[in-house]
TrEMBL record:
Keywords: Hydrolase, Metal-binding, Protease, Repeat, Thiol protease, Ubl conjugation pathway, Zinc, Zinc-finger. The active site is at C333, H813. Residues 651-692, 718-758 form the UBA domain. Residues 173-281 form the UBP-type domain. It holds the Pfam family UCH. It comes from the Eukaryota. This is Ubiquitin carboxyl-terminal hydrolase. One of its GO terms (biological process) is proteolysis.
Length: 853
């Protein structure tokens, strides 16, 4: 013991006592899902407070030299089955009355009973020191080590803090603006449907400003979906702080966001604020249950719940590699379903699981905060089979269960969920979320963390070609954009059982008028071919500004695939809003095929003899009282300042430019907005600004057609050193950081987005400190290459689908079905079973892979 005492004395300076705010990982290994209950227990570093399973603690010692670890082992006590849990998967006998965890009337917090043993282990020889052993050691050793041990035992673990918070849906603070919010008497009344963004006409993810009733779209995702940031931009212009998300308004409340406080908030005067615009939320007729009641009833097995979970049959539990369940951390089934599907895709397996040793070896000092490490950890946990074992029965007598449980030990992705949700207003909460939105959010994170090397999200990436034909001139315009998902519309008016639906609606109205209970509604039968036709049919654009005829006219837009990805994701757009403002899901059955041939939807590009719309907008309108003076050049002279001279300097409406500048936009961007909208006023110029804010040359000087350069010189404004340092710390060179900041007017957030969207260009750039290439000016360089996409035949086979149960994305439950070795398998959180009747007609997200011929 003298030798051990000497070792402790030598490492005493590395042993820390946890302070408030320290992150203590004493429930989960940083590299695996080992816990104190696992074989070998958990080793907590007494310096960094990181936890490691027996398989990885040696790695940490070898890398850091840290010798002292607190070894925690827990053994589960045998206990009688809780009377509130039937053990059969049925709803609890004591039904919760409010959506809450750990408080009166809410869901009970799982309280397992364990016998815990702790001791200090010294590496590399794994010498053990118990609390009793410390009594005979020098005072300085005994005091420091005892305080550290006690502090680690008393500290709340990170996973405990994240998992078991007392929440009532979500704890939100009352907005400081709510009580005295000034609302404009502008006569605006908001209808219960048909909303669209006032800037870009987007019809989804809409927010109504509570000051003036204006409706704008929400934040933009990495791939351009979700919104165009117009609600946020409007706040920056107007200063009106509060907005409510349309579609979330119920008699119980709504989602209210404060742009000033940058958070979801409570508005105690919301009924009054909504009634100002004609929305009477408190007296609206509700359907059968409120949204809270629907979410509490997640275990009710009726209708789609029973079909999707295959609850009516005895399912055979499955175990082994690739058949690992995931624990539900509280409304985390959306995450579980998405990640189960992603790790059946070879690109994700190769990137994260095949390279796991390299990823772990290169992990930073805190691997719990490293994206690649946590994704690799999750992937290995799902594919290895190490955690695909039957869960211990909670009762004393396993024979009391009348059917195979199918529950597994599984894995609890707490670190992963905390990391991918950090800073996100939705995924950082314990509320139910949209699996489609999470999939795009995760792909976004993959894109950002795969700056070099293999990028598995390329498996989904494809190009969309949009062809717009001016109906007046018959000239066309072609544009391409990147996408990761096909959103398939659901034409309810083309249901094959329309007569049955109409008769059911008539019976419902009769029952409602007589006060009788409404009859069960039939499910609409929609052919998949009809949905596909609705996606590919031409769309008519009104108020299209044609550069050929110099005026607004009608145009036709045709959307086609410019490339076909290796893996195709199809979202069925089931979610909509009822006339009573309650978000709802279309109850439809779609005969989604096992095989799919989209070859007929491949884009053909410009056709022979087809004329293109002019790329450059015409000169702006000239007012008759302004004397126009051109810039003399090779094609101009003093006698002929022709309006058609390519070097002519048009007159811009200074008042419109000034108005835009006052809103905070760069001067050159404002000048371009007025120029390209032909001096047609502030509204048109504002629309141009909103639509071009993400352009890398948004704030670059205006270049008139025919001129070789913009007036003035290359921007020489100083770049903020702190912005440069931030971007350089992400692994980019100073030259690359400089270029990104100059392309985005020194706005850090936009510079980061810009640099990640120009990776291919940046990899090959050769720029001197001044920002110019050695071969000449930046303007003379080749344009950056397009996004890297894979292409091949448009023939696919279905291999997975994610289904949603419930009436909206804000409540309910997700499960996924995955085809493994020609057998459909259902993944329902911790239950993994062979599927008997996969409900392919009721899915929400469908995953296809290319058929290799």
């Amino acid at each position: 013991m003298t030798e051990v005492s000497e070792i402790l004395m030598s490492v005493l300076s590395t042993i820390r006592v946890p302070r408030p705010g320290d992150r203590v990982h004493k429930d989960e290994c940083a590299f695996s899902f080992s816990s104190p209950e696992s074989e070998g227990g958990l080793y907590v570093c007494m310096n960094s407070f990181l936890g490691f399973g027996s398989k990885y603690v040696e790695r940490h010692y070898a890398k850091t030299g840290q010798r002292a670890y607190l070894h925690i082992t827990r053994t589960r006590k045998t206990q009688k089955e809780d009377e509130n849990n039937s053990g059969s998967g049925d709803p609890p006998k004591k039904k919760p009355t409010r959506l809450a965890i750990g408080i009166e009337g809410g869901f009970d917090v799982e309280q397992e009973q364990y016998e815990e043993e702790v001791k200090v282990v010294l590496f590399p020889d794994r010498q053990e020191v118990t609390s009793e052993d410390l009594a005979s050691m020098p005072d300085v050793v005994r005091e420091r080590v005892s305080l550290s041990m006690a502090g680690l035992q008393a500290a709340d673990s990170v996973s405990h803090t994240l998992q078991v918070q007392q929440w009532d849906g979500e704890v939100r603070q009352e907005s400081k603006h709510a009580a005295d919010l000034k609302q404009l008497d502008n006569g605006v009344k908001i209808p219960p449907s048909g909303w669209k963004c006032e800037v870009c006409d987007l019809q989804e993810n809409l927010w109504m400003n509570l000051t003036d009733g204006k409706i704008f779209c929400g934040r933009r995702y990495f791939d351009g979906s979700g919104g165009n940031n117009h609600a946020l931009l409007y706040y920056q212009q107007s200063g009106y702080p509060l907005a409510v998300k349309l579609g979330t308004i119920t008699p119980d409340g709504a989602d209210v966001y404060s742009y000033d406080e940058d958070d979801m908030v409570l508005d105690p005067k919301l009924p009054e604020h909504l009634s100002h615009f004609g929305i009477d939320m408190m007296t609206m007729e509700k359907t059968e249950r409120t949204m809270t009641e629907l979410e509490i009833a997640v275990n009710q097995r009726v209708g789609e719940w029973e079909v999707i979970q295959e609850s009516g049959t005895t399912l055979r539990p499955l175990w082994g590699p690739g058949l690992t369940g995931m624990k539900n951390l509280g409304n985390s089934c959306y995450l579980n379903s998405v990640m189960q599907v992603l790790f059946t895709i070879p690109d994700f397996q190769t990137k994260y699981v095949s390279n796991i040793e390299k990823i772990f070896n290169e992990a930073p000092s805190d691997p719990t905060q490293d994206f690649k490490t946590q994704v690799a950890k999750l992937g290995y946990g799902l594919l290895s089979g190490e955690y695909s074992k039957p869960a211990p029965d909670p009762g004393d007598d396993p024979s009391t269960s009348t059917e195979p449980r199918g529950d597994q030990v599984g894995i609890a992705p707490r670190m992963f969920k905390a990391l991918v949700g950090r800073g996100h207003p939705e995924f950082s909460t314990n509320r139910q979320q949209d699996a489609q939105e999470f999939l795009l959010h995760f792909i976004n994170m993959v894109e950002r963390n795969c700056r070099s090397g293999m990028n598995p999200s390329e498996a989904f990436r494809f190009l969309v070609e949009e062809k717009i034909v001016c109906q007046q001139s018959q000239k066309a315009k072609y544009t391409q954009r990147v996408d990761y998902m096909v959103q398939l519309p659901v034409p309810m008016d083309q249901a094959t059982n329309m007569e049955e639906l109409q008769e059911a609606e008539r019976c419902r109205e009769e029952a409602e008028s007589s006060g009788a209970p409404p009859p069960a509604a039939p499910r609409a039968q929609i052919p998949f071919a009809v949905c596909l036709a609705a996606l590919s049919e031409p769309e008519t654009l009104t108020d299209f500004w044609s550069s050929a005829v110099q005026a607004k006219t009608t145009a036709t837009k045709i959307t086609r695939f410019a490339s076909f990805p290796d893996h195709l994701v199809i979202q069925i757009k089931k979610f909509t809003f009822g006339l009573d403002w309650v978000p709802k899901k279309l109850d439809v059955s779609i005969d989604v095929p096992d095989t799919l041939d989209l070859s007929s939807l491949r884009a053909m590009g410009q056709q022979p003899g087809e004329e293109l719309l002019p790329e450059v907008a015409p000169p702006p309108l000239m007012t008759p009282d302004v004397e126009v003076k051109g810039i003399l050049g090779s094609q101009g002279n003093e006698e002929d300042d022709s309006l058609y001279s390519p070097l002519l300097s048009p007159v811009l409406d200074d008042s419109t430019v000034s108005q835009l500048c006052e809103m905070g936009f760069p001067l050159e961007a404002c000048r371009k907005a007025v120029y390209y909208t032909g001096n047609t006023g502030i509204d048109a110029a504002m629309n141009w600004v909103m639509g071009h804010m993400e352009d890398p040359d948004f704030s670059a000087p205006l270049v008139y057609p025919g001129s070789s350069s913009a007036p003035g010189t290359t921007p020489t404004e100083s770049l903020p050193e702190e912005h440069l340092a931030t971007i350089i710390s992400m692994g980019f060179s100073r030259d690359q950081a400089t270029r990104a900041l100059r392309a985005t007017n020194n706005v850090l957030e936009r510079a980061v987005d810009w640099i990640f969207s120009h990776l291919d260009d940046l990899e090959s750039m050769d720029v001197s400190e001044g920002g110019r290439s050695e071969g000449g000016s930046e303007a003379s360089r080749e344009p950056p290459p397009g996004p890297r996409v894979r292409d091949g035949p448009g023939k696919y086979e279905l291999f997975a689908f994610i289904s949603h149960m419930g009436t909206s994305t804000m409540c309910g439950h997700y499960v996924c079905h995955i085809k493994k070795d020609q057998q459909w398998v259902i993944f329902n959180d911790q239950k993994v079973c062979a599927s008997e009747k996969p409900p392919k007609d009721l899915g929400y997200l469908y995953f296809y892979r290319r058929v290799v011929e």
